[in-house]
Amino acid sequence: MEGRFEAEHGISLPPLLGRHEEIELLSRRWRQAAQGDGCVVLLTGEPGIGKSHIALTFQERLQAEQHIRLRYFCSSHHTNSALFPFVSHLERAAGFERNDPAAVKRAKLEALLAQTPSHVAILANLLSLPEERDRPPDFTPQKRKETTLLTLLARLQGLAERESVLAVFEDVHWIDPTSLELLTLMMQWVPQLRVLLLITARPEFTPPWPNHAHVTTVPLTRLNRRHGMALIERITTGKALPEPVMEKILAQTDGVPLFIEELTKTVLESGLLQEQDDQYVLERPLPSFAIPTTLYASLMARLDRLAAVKEVAQIGAAVGREFSHELLSVVAGLSKEKLDEALDQLVRSELVFCRGERLERIYTFKHVLVRDAAYAGLLKSRRAELHAAIANAFERRFADFVETEPETLAHHLTEAGLIRKAVDYWLRAGKKAAARSANIEAIAHLQRGIEAASRLPDESDRDVLELDLQFALAPCLIATQGPASSQAMATFTRAHELCERLGDVPEYLQVMFWLVTASVVRGELPQAHEGIATLMRLAKARDDQPALLNAMRGRAMILLFMGRITDAHQEVEGAIEAFNASDERVRLAARAAGQDAGAAALSLMSWALWLRGHADRAQLQIEAALERADAVEHPHTRAYVDYYASVLYALLGEHALARRRAERCVALSEEHGFGQWRNLSRAIRGISTTMLNPSSDTLALDEVRGAFNDYRRAGYQLGITALDILWCPALLLRQQPEAALEIIEQGLTTASHNSERIFEAELYRLKARALLARNGAGAMADAQSLLYRAMTTARKQEARSLEFRAAMDLAALWTDQGKRAEALDLLAPLHASFTEGLDTQDLREGKALLAQWQ
Q1: Which backbone phi and psi does 654 adopt, to 5 degrees?
Q2: CA torsion angle 846 847 853 854 (round to 10)
Q3: DSSP string, 458-495
Q4: What average pLDDT does range 658-675 have in this prediction?
Q5: What is the mean pLDDT of the chain?
Q6: For strand 322-324 and strand 279-282, is the pairing parallel, antiparallel, or unpaired?
Q7: With the C-alpha atoms ordered 754, 759, 761, 767, is the resulting torsion angle positive or negative?
Q8: What is the pLDDT of residues 618-657, one digit of tens each?
Q9: pLDDT at residue 262, as a whole number
Q10: Count of CB atoms situated within 10 Å of the CB of 288
Q11: How far apart are CA 406 and CA 427, in angstroms?
Q12: Is 272 helix (H, G, I), strand (E, B) or coil?
């Protein structure tokens, strides 16, 4: 789509009035950018204020200079079409024609990118022109999206290395979420490039980027009286209007250039005025209702006076801001002569602009307000007829368009009331967007589909279609908001209701898995335990081996976090045996749930073994998990295992290893958008950094606090106590017992409310330490009681490593009280019971204490 002032057939860009300061500012910024100091100018203003006119006038000013011009246009009809402005730009730049075969388009794209052939595969995929060689074996949707954005940025960088670049981005108030993400990234790149990025937007647009020094925002004001009069004189070609008419126009339009222009034309076309020499005169007094009071009314009046072609304008308006001659010829049902005559008259009126030749002609309404006025004049029944005809024409004549923009066809079918077909296309659009990891756009399409499906009369058909939509929606919500979000939970619950109503449907197991996962991460462990039992029963009944593998290791994880460590150990052993006995097909299918079941089970096993006092075997299991994760080359599995490894190494006192694993987890999570693992591993990284250097600045602990807050804000609860018991020693090392006590109380509350009792014993032990650090000998009685409770809890859970830690602290307390014999009797048998992990920090410290007391 070209700009609304870019027209052919003799229509040229009119002079710009009252915008000298804005043009001069752009000129200064251009000189700055051309010297390598890239910058951004954001023009904001109400509709019709002249944003596009300024942008095009400035581009005309640069025509004599050597530079590269890039133009991107957002559209009100494509607010959820991922990367629409960039796709449209590439298609124009490559010179695509609608009837070009895919191979021809591919060749044109390769010619456009001849200097950067490495970009072809990624951008061909973006333009739906992929070849088999373009598809890497493990190209996840998220990775494809990230690579696409970086490729588009690299293209801008490459162009800026050749010439100075003026990049114009119009109407960003209609930008799709993925394009806005890319535009925000551009903001960070521009200062290092020879680029002036000129953006236009309405005032309601709120930029998501911070107040960068290289970004200038220019709010456009309305024209003053002098410039308003000059604009009127330009439209009247210098002929004076009667003073009452001039005053009425100036008063009604209030300095809005588009309104001034359209209202002046409305008056000239109304028949109220007669030309006499170099002026217009009124033949009778001006009626009070003669001049429309709003821009909309003015536009409607002009369209009404073009009665013979108004219907063609309205058909075009039903298509959108832009429409093709070819599509209109199919929908309008007029002869070529009548259609061409009507379109030519619309172009002469300057309500519509045209580009291209013959059947390839593309028409664009002068302004979106013109399009809206034409569309508003349609009766509801006529609108439905037109949208049905447009949808039918797309399906019969524009198969490539249907493939690339199913959401547009879905929109027309919805407006036509053809709901059954519309739902199919909303689902197709949602899946297509999700496959590109354009999850926000996918959510919008799928929600439109769900809304449309609710209007279907047949309940059984409606339920089947809605389940398809909810089933496609759930992974998008998990990716953007996390499984713990209220919207994701509502989707899982609704999908479960639909599965129950429809009976034995294939989606049931996956829906149950989502519900269990959500309960787990929200800290609802008893509910999750009930859900996983149901899931295991269903998986066994259906002989669904992938689901059973995930259910087994899921149950092990739930039991582990509930503090049922022996049960968890037995369950995870069974999960590993089942995984080892399965074939690669089953393993791959199970991985679709999020992680490789084998690597995940080994990670859980490592924690269970350490808790039970088998530190050497725990390290062997986590090393096997890491090896497995690297072998399968699955990013989410790697992040999962790295996090579990970082916690295990921190528990072992190996903080350098813990930080290394946490750093890799952070990097993977930032690269692939794993919000849960990113926050958890950021916390472990900050804790390990503090433990390695307690005297360092507070940045590491600030990172821990930030990660905690982000994790909780996202609705996550699982694993909080693991962070609590690792964070407290860091706070105590920094001599912050009050902060440590606050964290411990939060951890004990979590253990009570969520049944996350895996580290309950350690919380009691650390509370005793914090009380002693704060109150010294005055807290001995309370500390001793807490340490007894820690030992009792750990013994009940068979968590020998935690029992030993509590015993060490209690023995040290007794020694301070002169009870050395009791201390030896308590600690020596426990230390002797360990047959491995003798070189770990805990057992070395225990051995040193025993040596002092003997």
Answers
A1: -95, 75
A2: 150
A3: -HHHHHHHHHHHHHHHHHHHHHHH-TTSHHHHHHHHHH
A4: 89
A5: 90
A6: unpaired
A7: negative
A8: 999 999 999 999 999 888 899 999 999 999 999 999 999 9
A9: 87
A10: 7
A11: 9
A12: coil
Contact 410, 391 (CB under 8 A): no
Radius of gyration over every alpha carbon of the chain, rounded to an integer in angstroms: 34
Q: Please name the residue ranges forming H helices in 35-140.
A: 51-61, 84-94, 102-112, 120-126
Q: At what angle do helices 439-453 and 459-481 cross, to 10 degrees?
A: 160
Rounded CA separation 709/728 (Å): 16
To the nearest 10 degrees (0 to 180), the angle between helices 545-561 and 565-581 is 160
648 Cβ neighbours under 8 A, 6+ residues apart = 606, 607, 610, 618, 619, 622
167 pairs with which residues across the strands?
A: 70, 197
Taking only the tens place, the pLDDT of each residue in 416-445 is 999 999 999 999 999 999 888 888 999 999
The DSSP result for 799-828, as a single string, is -HHHHHHHHHHHHHHHHHTT-HHHHHHHHH
Whole-number Å distance between alpha carbons of 378 and 384: 10
**Confidence (pTM):** 0.81
**Contacts (Cβ under 8 Å, ≥6 apart) of 73:** 1, 2, 3, 85, 88, 170, 171
What b-and-e string marks burial along 420-437, b requiring 16 or more CB atoms within 10 Å of the CB?
Answer: ebbbbbbbbbbbbbbebb
Bridge partners (DSSP) listed for residue 352: 365
- Which of the 8 DSSP states describes residue 334? -
pLDDT tens per residue across span 54-94: 999 999 999 889 999 999 999 999 999 999 999 999 999 99
The answer on pLDDT for 343 being more than 80 is: yes
pLDDT for residue 273 is more than 60? yes
**pLDDT value, residue 6:** 43
The tokens for 282 are 């009124």
Angle at 834 between CA 828 and CA 839, to 5 degrees: 100
Q: Let me know how long the chain is.
A: 854
Q: Please state, for a pLDDT cut of 90, what percent of the chain lies above it.
A: 69
Name, in order, each residue with C-beta under 8 angstroms of 502's C-beta and a sequence gap of 6 or more.
460, 463, 464, 467
